[in-house]
């Protein structure tokens, strides 16, 4: 928007206030810079959104401004904007009103802490130096005309990158990870990233679980198992995981004592290096009526992955003997024997499993295992 256009808008607004004109008239956006919004959940809990107005490379009169965006339409450095508080200002990182970025939870930006909340987003560009994202506590400005660095909550430097031509200024979440994502501004031939990470990811989830399990979710033993499994898979808050695992088994009106809940507890005890206790719980799980050949087989494979190969072989042997060699117990014997390098014995069970395989997919898998065992190679 030119200086003349801005003065015109402010003049019309002033006259409207004087004569009581409606402030809610649905007019087209200034400069035809359409309002846009992008939102992303990071880690499932943290919500990040950007509300912005989107100019295009082609000018209002149809002129092609390719090569004239950076350093011209968007000046390098802090510049005199010709209006407002008179201080040199950054670019508004969009068009018209403030670009506003909102975080539902505390995050880090480029490794620096930023509290949950909404921020006016600005950008300082340079011809060669890193560019600077600015997060301002003022979210209600028009552009950057009244930008005040005393309202900055955070500044971070980033390196702009080249990208494919992008006609309309666009914010996009790229390079998504379980606990983070990269938000990129893309316009013309530039991509300006910011790396967002969920702060205290594990603590955030565990604290959320604690609150949710105090309500109706806590009356479902599967939710207790799921919460403890999160801790197990992330190797965090194991003491709390064990409390949830116990509750899933024996909490009044909630607990269900079966192979899955017992094995869940045993897995956590093993992670805590409490092997004797874990083995006692596993013994109880094996004797439970809900223990099936497939569940026991998966337990043996888990033990191999944990490096407890001899214990895994014991489990596979129990499975084979207890269920009279039904599928897939012979497969388990082949895996268990191969894990402890007893390849000739493992080969015999693999050949049995090949003959017993219920479908072509399993036959192909056992054929590959047989070929490996003949070369005295592990199949796990």
Layout of helices and strands:
Elements: H1 3-19, E1 34-42, E2 46-54, E3 99-103, E4 107-109, E5 112-114, E6 117-124, E7 131-136, E8 152-158, E9 161-177, E10 180-198, H2 201-212, H3 221-234, H4 238-250, H5 259-271, H6 275-287, H7 293-305, H8 309-322, H9 329-339, H10 343-356, H11 360-374
Antiparallel strand pairs: 1-2, 2-3, 3-6, 4-5, 4-10, 6-7, 7-8, 9-10
3D architecture notes:
The chain has 380 residues and is of the alpha+beta class. It folds into 4 domains: 1-30, no CATH class; 33-198, no CATH class; 200-291, Serine Threonine Protein Phosphatase 5, Tetratricopeptide repeat; 293-380, Serine Threonine Protein Phosphatase 5, Tetratricopeptide repeat (Alpha Horseshoe), CATH 1.25.40. The chain contains 11 helices and 10 strands. The protein has helices at 3-19, 201-212, 221-234, 238-250, 259-271, 275-287, 293-305, 309-322, 329-339, 343-356, 360-374, and strands at residues 34-42, 46-54, 99-103, 107-109, 112-114, 117-124, 131-136, 152-158, 161-177, 180-198. Helix 3 runs parallel beside helix 5 and helix 5 runs antiparallel to helix 6 (275-287). The termini are far apart.
